[in-house]
Specification:
- The chain is α/β, with parallel strands linked by helices and about 325 residues long.
- Helices cover about 45% and strands about 15% of the residues.
- The strands form four sheets. It has a five-stranded parallel sheet with strand order 2-5-8-1-9.
């Protein structure tokens, strides 16, 4: 009876998530994979890095999801002249009270869009580190908690190099997923064109409150991860640190550093969320394989040799997936 009840709860949660997905996709056309990735981030309370050329609805997706789940939304345009206080907030002198009072920055929101995050220098990027890891912000001598849930969804343009500052590895590691956003199909692009020519843009409809999202998070936490799946996840991640142990000795010169233990945690958590979205109460190896590129691609530090040979992180992830034994 307990198993039947648990499965019914999983199916109900999956159906509700499907409704949220459809509500977002009515506004954001042709980016189902992007919407699913952002939903996984929301279920896991993990930050997501979105990489793609301009015009692929990255900003629209985040804004629409915030409207559907009735969460607060703030957009931060990262520029070279941005200051850390513009992100986190600062102390402002109140003449009436005769003292400094905290003025909270735009980071105090449920969904924070860090648009073109790599356009700001490292000191501004680092202003998000405490918020992303500890979900608090220190202003002056006081520390303030951020609203729950709190997600940073950052975008970056992969084709521009001038005026950009690569994200440090420590910050990249704090992103749950790095999602590569691709172009929509011809059919979907025709729908988008129709919206713009008719100037009839669908508006996001509030569908689920933050309290309900917390219940869906708890449902994701109940998804079963078998010991063999856990071992598979750890074997896959540790293979990036010791390629020769899985028969990939030739890969070692291409990697400066492998993935950290955060990768194992992220892969397990996101696999549970994906299984829930698929209506299952258990994780399969296919869930792990599907999410491995998004979890690992930004955590692998490639050597100069890999760059010279034109080898990408995705190429290496694919080789690890083929080399590590599947349970």
């Amino acid at each position: 009876m307990d198993m039947e009840r648990d499965q019914a709860q999983i199916e109900a949660a999956a159906a509700r998530l499907g409704e949220i997905h459809r509500a977002v996709s009515e506004v954001v056309v042709g980016q189902d994979g992007l919407i699913e990735s952002v939903l996984i981030g929301l279920l896991c309370r993990g930050h997501v890095l979105l990489e793609g050329v301009p015009g692929l609805a990255k900003t629209l997706t985040v804004r629409t999801l915030a409207g559907v789940v009735e969460g607060s939304f703030q957009r931060l345009q990262f520029t070279p002249d941005l200051l850390p206080a513009d992100v986190t907030g600062t102390l402002v002198f109140d003449q009436k009270q005769g003292e400094f009072v905290p003025h909270k920055g735009p980071v105090f929101a449920n969904l924070v869009l860090a648009d073109e995050i790599n356009r700001a220098p490292a000191k501004v990027q680092s202003a998000l580190l405490q918020a992303m890891e500890e979900r608090v912000v220190t202003i002056g001598d006081a520390t303030w908690p951020l609203p729950e849930p709190f997600l940073v969804l950052a975008t970056q343009n992969p084709i521009e190099q001038e005026g950009t500052y690569p994200l440090p590895e420590a910050q990249l590691d704090r992103f749950l997923l790095k999602v590569v956003v691709d172009y929509p199909s011809k059919e979907d692009e025709l729908r988008v064109l129709g919206y713009h020519l008719a100037e009839s843009f669908p508006e996001p409809q509030p569908l689920a409150g933050l309290d309900e999202m917390q219940q869906l998070e708890k449902a994701a936490e109940q998804v079963y991860v078998d010991d063999r799946i856990r071992s598979y996840i750890v074997n896959l991640v540790t293979a990036t640190r010791h390629p020769s142990e899985v028969g990939l000795g030739e890969v070692a010169p291409l990697l400066a550093w492998g993935a950290s233990p955060r990768a194992s945690i992220s892969l397990a958590r996101t696999s549970r969320a994906l299984a829930l979205l698929r209506g299952r109460g258990y994780v399969t190896p296919e869930d792990v394989k599907e999410l491995a590129p998004a979890v690992l691609r930004h955590r692998l530090v490639l050597s100069y040799e890999a760059e010279a040979e034109g080898v990408s992180a995705d190429d290496l992830v694919e080789r690890f997936l083929l080399a590590v034994e599947v349970p």
